[in-house]
Each structure stands twice: as C-alpha cells, then as structure tokens.
Amino acid sequence: MSEGIVIQDRDGRVIEVNDAAQRILGLTCDQLMGRTSTDSRWRSVREDGSEWVGLDHPSMVALRTACPQRNQIMGVDASDSGRRWIKINASPIFDDGGETPSRVVASFVDITEQIRLQSQLAQAADELGDLYNNAPCGYHTLDAAGRFTRINETELRWLGVTREEVLGRLGPMDFFTEEGRRIFQQRFPDVLSGQGVSGLEVELQGRHGELRRVSVYASIVKDAGGRFMHTRSVLHDITSLHEARQVLEHVMLDQSTMLNNDLIGMAKVIDRHFVWVNPGMTRIFGYAPHELVNQSTRMLFLNDEDHRSFGQAILADRSKGEYARAQSRMRRKDGRVLWIDVNAALLSADSGESLGFMADITELKEGEEARVKAMWLELENQRVKELLNEREELLDVLAHEVRQPLNNASAALQSTTSAMEPSRNEQMASPAARARQVIHDVQACIDNTLSVASLLMAKGPIQREDVDIDMVINLAIGDMAPRQKGRVLIERRTQTRTASMEVGLMRLALRNLLSNALKFSPESSPVVIRLSDCDHPLALLIDVVDAGDGIAAELLPRLFEREDRARQERSTKRKGLGLYIVRRVMELHGGAVQVLHSDAKGTTMRLSIAQGGDY
Question: CB of 21 within 8 A of CB of 31?
Fold first, then answer.
C-alpha cells in the first residue's frame, strides 16, 4: 500500500500507523507512536513556506470541528532525509453514534516528486516569460482585425504604453508613421492569407514621440483544424543600422560627387596607362572618356622628353614613399597647350595603381605673367586697366571654383576615413591619407599662385592691425598636414604678445617657410619657430629653424626670386613661388626675410616685421 495511514486519539496522539506512513515520514513505529500533532519535532510548513502550527494540522482541525479535511498540502521535516511533501485527508471517527469524534484517521500520499516537478515547471515558465517579455526584440500577436492580443514588455517600452491600454483595443497601425500605415494596409492581407512578410522595414512612433526603425517578420498561426487563430510578429530594432546606412549613402554620394566633378581632372593610372577618368578630364583635355581609357599617358604631353621627365619625377617621389607633384605643359585634343598642375598618390604598391589630380592652371600662369608685365607699364593706360580688371575677376572666379571642389573632396575623404576607422583597414587608410595630402598640397599651390597673381601684385599700403602673435603662429601651423603638425615646436625669447601686421599675408608667409622646412628636413626631426624682438630698429623677429641638409650656395643669391631652383639633393627643378611670396609679404610690412645660416646641419630663416613708425 502506497498511502500512509495514521490514527490519532481524541488528544491527537498517534495510536496506529501503517508501514507506508513510516516509509513516507522516515520514522519508525516506535518514533511515531504517542507523538501528537503539536510536537515541535514535526517542523511542518505550508505550500508558501510559512510555519504550520500543530493545532492547525488537518487531523487537529477534523477533531475540533468534526469536519473532514481534504487535499491539504503539507511539508514535513520529520527525519534526516530532508523535507517531504504530502497530501493529507483527515476524517473524524465517531463511536456509538456520538457527535464528538473519538479518533481521527489521516491518510496521505508522498507528492514530493510532483511538487519538485511543479516547481521546475513554474521556474521554466518564469524563465520563458522573462525571455519573451524582455527579449531584445519586440513580439506581438494580432487578431484578424489587426488588434494586439499579446505583446511583450520590450515592445510596450518602445511604444510607451501599458498592456491594458493596447490589448484588444489598439494595433500597430496606431503607432506607425504615415508610410508605415500605408505599408501595413497593403501587406497585412498577405499575412492573413498565409504568405507572411520577412524583413519589412517601417518606423514606429511611441507615445513619447521617439521614432524607431524596425524590421518586421510576420506569419499566421492556425489551430489543429486549420482555422485562423492569430498572427505572430517579431520586430527587430534597426535604428542604428538604418542611420549607419544613411551615413554611408551620404559618404558614397559625396565621394561620387567628388570623383565625377568636371572642375578637377582625376584619373587612375597603371603602368602609365589610363584605366579610369572623370568628367573633369574630358573638360580639361577635350577627349571623351573612351578615348583616354587604356591609352598611354604620353598622348597628353607635348613630346617624349616631357613625358619621360614627368615619369622620373613620379618614380623619384615614390621611392621615398611620398606622393608625387609637378607642373607640366600638356596638350588638349584640339592642339592647345595647357599648363597642368598634377598631384598623384600611389594607391597600390602591388598593382602600381595611382590616383592623379589635375588642375588646369593655364589661366593662372597667363594671368601671373600679365600682371608682372603690367607693373612696368603705365597704369594710366585705360586698356591695361580694363585688362587688369578682367584678370582680377577671372582670379576671383577661379579662386572660388577651384577651391570649392577641393574643399568638398577633402571633406568627403575625411568622412570616408572616419567611416572606415572602426574596421582599421590599413590597406585603404594609407592611400586615403596620401590622397588627403595631395588635396592639401593642391590647395597650398593654388593659394600661393592666387596670392602672387592678386594680393601681392597690388600697390598701396596694406591694412595692418595689432594681433595676437600666437594666434598667427597657430593658424600657420594649422595649415600643415596632420602628420606634420606635431613636428613644429615653439621657442619664445620675448614677452611680447601682440604685433602690428596683416594677419592673412603673415600667415601665408610663415606657412610657406614652415612648409619648406618640414619638407626639406628629416621627418623625425623637429622644426622650431623661435620668437624674439629687436629694439633698434623696433621689430618682431620670427626664426624658422630646420635640421635639413642646407641650401646650395649657388641658390642663395636668387633664393627669394621667382625662378627655377632646387635643393642640393633634388635633381628635378620646379617653379617656386613660396619664398618669393615670403619676400613680397615682408616688403609690404616694411620688413625683410633673410637666411641667417645654412649648412649641412640645417637652415635658419628669419622674418623681421617692422613695428612702430611709418611702414
């Protein structure tokens, strides 16, 4: 017999017990006989874990009330075997038809395993409920009318509502944007028909106003008879992914705009053959794209010698791990000769692929020559004045039309680099950095060229004002390439904080000296800006000190003239404007630029900016 039987007398003492009761309670007959329900050794508890005092045990209640007690669940710690759970029925026994019970019989079964399984099921249900309600995605079911019949806590938080507010009352239509409502109306019939939807993107707008982009997966649930029960939907929050895609699309659009502009020529070259050209190349050289692609770059040069020299300059720069830059004469398809400023960056050392930027500076060079000649002609000649006015207007247009696409290109490259940063793709990062350097040098070249052609050729006094010296220095350093800024050190030997100067011109002069010093000195060496002053005559002194290999002695007499020159280690000569601009800026300030010393250990250039009195 598996059911335990215990008989207790009127006072609650155990007077009979069967073997099953002994086994279930883990006690012997001797241990049970005579024990009462109020015996403290029982240590009995209710289902909720609270203490169950002896007077309230089912047997004692049946004796006291003369009423049977059914299906009472009790936990008993009656032995060393641990807690046992039993289900008890207690029935009073009446002798000779009396109304007061003389005894009570308690029958019980061991339900310990059942309780354990119920506890496990309850725990599993709680875990499943928590997983459902707090999953990182939204879950809901809908009736045939599109109203919520079930929804998890995650989606309720997204919507900013309570479960009572939406169940049976509202549906997704009440939280979609206008576009989402239109899509829901179109696709919900498909779900009801059993087709379902997968990866459908819509926007949810919660009661708090927050917009959330979600990807929806929905299907239908039927009963065993194939009848509709409800729809089942899973919503994934893809707001961040959607925003990232929009940023990427914007970057790609900017990059496409940069590459397909018709102001700056761009070309990819492998083995000195064009593999891609942009519309700017078509405008500058007059060839259709298919006429250039797969053709040798020789077709743009005036002769073999120019082509060969340009190629040697490119290879020389590449051997030092640098980008290449040069100005060369080239020919349009219609035969017209152009001056082209070329900047090229190596994209792949394995394939030899390069990206070249080409700017038509023919008008700038022609305008420059015309303005130099005009300085020696009679300014009262009206025809010359009209020509100068036309040239000035042209320079203004070029200054805007050429700088703007370069600024856009620089910004697009910066955005592309930032977008690639998390992946740390070194293969793409290095070419992008070289391309930014190319754009930086194109801008510097155009700035210098335009300065010579306009500001520096103008007569009349410049407008000077007292400015913060450190501000001007920081502006000049800020014009340097990012990898060069850290090399510039400042040494102050004067307490003077302000000086009289024209900020834009002085920034240009200092920038040109810094650019030369950084370029012609080892990359591991610093370039020092040393500030001091002079009392007789009153002047601010700015020295730029580098650790390069010095300037060739034969170049020193004409170093600040507008002519071909080169440092000792370079065999390729280029037309230089930088130091000439420095000289002109200092002349306009009533000061001077000079080489304090130059030898194999470095060069020191000094700017003397006159202060006080008439300039």
Answer: no
Order of strands across the sheet with 538-545? Answer: 488-492, 527-535, 538-545, 602-610, 592-599
H-type alpha helices, 16-57: 19-25, 29-32
- pLDDT tens for each residue of 423-474: 555 555 566 666 666 666 666 656 655 555 555 555 567 889 999 999 999 9
Find, among 274, 294, 296, 292, the residue nearest to 283 by Cα. Answer: 292
- Say yes or no to pLDDT of 242 above 50: yes
Closest Cα partner for 258 from 131, 414, 127?
414
Locate 611 and state its tokens.
Answer: 């202060």
**CA 408 to chain CA mean position, Å:** 19
Helix extents (H) in 320-422: 362-374, 382-420
Tokens describing residue 311:
């190629």
79-115 pLDDT, tens digit each: 666 788 989 999 999 887 778 898 999 999 988 888 8
607 and 530 Cβ atoms separated by less than 8 Å: no
How far, CA to CA in Å, does 115 sit from each of 72, 110, 121? 13, 10, 10
pTM of the full structure: 0.35
Q: For 123-191, where are the E strands, in sequence order?
A: 138-142, 148-151
CB atoms within 10 A of CB 131: 11
Cβ-count burial 222-251 (b if 16+ within 10 Å, e if not): eeeeeeeebbbbbbebbeeebeeeeeeeeb
Residue 238 in contact with residue 215, Cβ under 8 Å? yes
For 408, the token pair is: 């856009």
pLDDT tens profile 261-284? 777 888 999 988 999 999 988 899
Phi, psi of 263 (to 5 degrees): -100, -45
- Orientation of helix 503-519 relative to helix 426-453, angle to 10°: 130
- 288/411 Cα distance (integer angstroms): 28
